[in-house]
Design brief:
Isoleucyl-tRNA Synthetase, Domain 1, 22 helices, 5-stranded antiparallel beta sheet, OB fold (Dihydrolipoamide Acetyltransferase, E2P), alpha/beta
Length: 648
């Protein structure tokens, strides 16, 4: 990283064609975390994110919705900002490529490169993927002749365009990568990009005439700037290129662009070439992280496996979401999301390790010292080792954060959390409390526990926005948490004896796995009719006949039923739909024994999105009725009818 007292990190600017999913959240959480960590170390950090609002794809989408492009985009951009607010991302600038300042920046860079002789007009003939806004050579298409990124059909395009002489910078790029081996990370991605460049760079089409939703080319009103040339310059707009020379010089070259590996080529080949042509320095690093997979595959709406981060935050809290994303997956590799691993992380690391450490310690201070932090008067035989682990942990956190290895950094911090828990078991405060001669030793033990909690809280402020403040409040510390530094975290003995600790609720309550899946079961599979107050009242919101027609209700015969291990509420059912068999999960175990429902013909929603309940796949939803007293009855057919028959 640069030897300067500022730190500049960016996310990609996201394309506003839909609401963001957990993959975008992963990228932005990482960028926000490193920005906050550098602030903790004393740097002046800038975190830039934004929205990439031009291009043919957005213009078409707006037309399909009967709206002007900007009108269509504005509502989606608001959802971006809402999500970052929910995630407590502290960006310093949200760059919209439709802003006047950004347009001027793009036009100035374009004109500067044109005047240098590195942009010329010609005719483009080739393949174009509108969803990805990407040009492709025939040899780059997949085996079916589709876009290699999204596997959708490409279109042959012929139009007059301006071209950037990217081929001119091929040797310069290779030389730069050889002299700056840390520019592309992880290292395996560096090799991929070097191979791409060595295959030969072609000049890049950077304008379009077939649509007009873009930044006008400053030398030709018939053209708009190609969306990727436009979007990349947002990294300059974010630190006031052209408007504030002092600020720009303070922060550029940037420290790191954090991007998904699928757009690494744009950031490590096209972007550096543009900067070279514009006589601007290149950023220190581009880090291409892996994909966040679900059930081993990429998220997509067609697969029905897109994870909504806002729902996760609503269910589990922002700290849990951020912790899971940063801890569960090694940054730079692909990782898989599952609800089971999510809950396991919360319960194990946050509730058990950290939450219990705080609860036990504050409770013992209340019990043995009337809630006042005791003095640290003596030393126990375990203190030196505890402090050594603390120093080693903080050093390792620092080193891993420098390498953007968030998972390793948190693991190192949790080494201290677990060692501090072990310190309780070693020193046995409850035994010391029985011996008045060991009261000073007891005070030292509790002081060290509280002090480590103080240090851990400071270190966690980069990762978690809420829990550190709750810890701080329970520790009773008067100094503002926001004023603490990384040095304060590394320094032992920052607590004032006599300060009163404060009782508080558990900062991370354990999640009852079965209860959570029961809620999912009720909302996604059972539909047992738990009505809220609003639903009890006569509603003016009716559905149409067409709406009802979209629900595929079918008669299904239960052919197998068994209890799900470790659950006292769920049954796994195999049902016969006539032309196929399905597996369903239903929360009816308290009302029916498996053997008593074999052969029953029930009604199911056959086109319900598949779900995973308590680790078991469920491909449909049973219908049942329940009353206020908790009684429940399956919806069955009165007389026998063919399995698979439609219900209308």
């Amino acid at each position: 990283m640069s030897n300067k007292d500022t730190f500049y990190v960016t996310t990609p600017i996201y394309y506003p064609n839909d609401e963001l999913h957990i993959g975008h959240t992963y990228t932005t959480t990482a960028a926000d975390t490193i920005a906050k960590f550098k602030e903790l170390q004393g740097y002046e950090s800038e975190l830039i994110t934004g929205s990439d609002e031009h291009g043919q794809k957005l213009q078409k989408a707006a037309q399909e919705h009967g709206q002007e492009p900007l009108e269509y985009i504005n509502d989606i951009v608001d959802t971006f900002k809402d999500l970052w607010s929910d995630l407590e991302v502290d960006y310093t600038e949200f760059v919209r490529t439709t802003s006047d300042e950004h347009k001027k920046d793009v036009q100035q860079i374009f004109k500067k490169i044109y005047d240098k002789g590195d942009i010329y007009k010609d005719k483009y003939e080739g393949y174009y993927c509108t969803p990805c806004e990407t040009f492709w050579k025939e040899r780059e298409l997949d085996e079916d002749g589709n876009c290699p990124d999204c596997n959708r059909p490409v279109e042959w395009m012929e139009e007059e365009s301006y071209f950037f002489k990217m081929s001119k910078y091929e040797d310069q790029l290779l030389e730069f990568l050889e002299n700056n081996p840390d520019f592309i990370q992880p290292d395996k991605r560096r090799s991929e990009m070097i191979n791409f460049i060595e295959d030969g760079l072609e000049d890049l089409c950077i304008s379009r005439t077939s649509f007009d939703w873009g930044v006008p080319v400053p030398i030709d009103d018939d053209h708009v700037v190609y969306v990727w040339f436009d979007a990349l310059i947002s990294y300059l707009t974010g630190i006031e290129y052209r408007r504030n020379e002092d600020k720009f010089n303070d922060y550029w070259p940037g420290d790191v662009h954090i991007v998904g590996k699928d757009i690494l080529r744009f950031h490590t080949v096209i972007w550096p070439a543009i900067l070279m042509a514009a006589d601007l320095e290149l950023p220190d690093r581009v880090f291409g992280h892996g994909f966040l997979l679900v059930e081993g595959g990429k998220m997509s709406k067609s697969k029905g496996n897109v994870i909504d981060p806002k729902k996760l935050i609503e269910d589990f809290g922002v700290d849990a979401v951020r912790y899971y994303l940063l801890r569960e997956i090694a940054f730079g590799t692909d990782g898989s999301y599952s609800t089971e691993s999510f809950i396991r992380r919360i319960n194990s690391d946050l509730a058990n390790d950290l939450g219990n450490l705080l609860n036990r310690t504050v409770a013992m201070v209340d019990k043995y010292f009337d809630g006042e932090i005791p003095a640290n008067k003596v030393e126990t035989e375990y203190d030196a080792d505890l402090e050594q682990v603390a120093q080693e942990s903080f050093q390792a956190v620092e080193e891993n954060m420098e390498d953007l290895q968030f998972s390793n950094a948190l693991e190192e911090l949790w080494t201290l959390v677990r060692r501090t828990n072990k310190y309780i078991d070693q020193t046995t405060p409850w035994v010391l409390a029985k011996d008045e001669d060991k009261r000073d030793e007891l005070g030292t033990v509790l002081y060290n526990l509280l002090d480590n909690l103080r240090r851990i809280a400071i270190a966690l402020t980069s990762f978690l926005p809420e829990a550190p403040a709750k810890m701080w409040e329970q520790l009773g510390i008067e100094a503002e948490l926001s004023e603490q530094t990384w040095e304060d975290a590394k320094t032992k003995g920052g607590l004032k004896a006599g300060t009163e600790v404060q009782d508080g609720e558990p900062i991370f309550p354990r999640i009852d796995v079965e209860e959570y899946y029961e809620k999912l079961d009720e909302s996604d599979t059972d539909n047992t009719g738990d009505n809220n107050e609003e639903e009890d009242e006569m509603s003016e919101d009716y559905i149409t006949f067409d709406d009802f027609g979209e629900v595929d209700l079918r008669v299904a015969e239960i052919i197998e039923a068994e209890k799900i291990e470790d659950s006292n509420k769920l049954l796994k059912l195999q049902v016969d739909l006539g032309d196929e068999q399905r597996q369903l999960v239903a929360g009816i175990s308290k009302h029916y024994q498996p053997d008593e429902i074999i052969g029953e013909q029930i009604v199911i929603v056959a086109n319900m999105k598949p779900a995973e309940i308590f680790g078991v796949k469920s491909n449909g939803m049973i219908l049942a009725a329940s009353d206020d007293e908790g009684n429940m009855k399956l919806t069955t057919v009165q007389d026998s009818i063919a399995n698979g028959a439609e219900v209308s």
